[in-house]
Amino acid sequence: MKQLGNGIYHIDTQIPLVQWTIISLNTQLQEKQENLTRLKKTLSQLLNCEGEFHQNKSICLDPSLSKKTWNGNMANDFNVFMQRELQGSYQTIEEKDLQTVITSVEAEIEKIKQEILSLESSHASQQAMLNNLHNQRRKELLNNE
Length: 145
What we know:
By secondary structure, the chain is an all-alpha fold. 83% of the residues lie in helices and 0% in strands.
């Protein structure tokens, strides 16, 4: 039997490095998938909140003041305040603030999806490299018999 050459030694040093890379990619992939799941759940909750905000818009004008409960300039001022300030603030939350958060979460979801695709591609590449190294090792061992 021939003495094993530098080729097999080189292959044997590469295999654990590629295996370690695959393990690292698996860990990263799992973390990204967990983050994606969490963000999708968060987005669903935000969309529910958006629907509830829209349905409850009229509540911010309660209680309404009738002439029987309160009248005069103060009642008019209070009604103007409710319509301009309270309803305006409510609409800002619904239309701008909540939508900004939803858009941000949607963008992060897309970013993570792309990262997952990249990690999956790297994983496949590393797995192919590992398979190739094992095949090379077998050939080296057969050639050295």
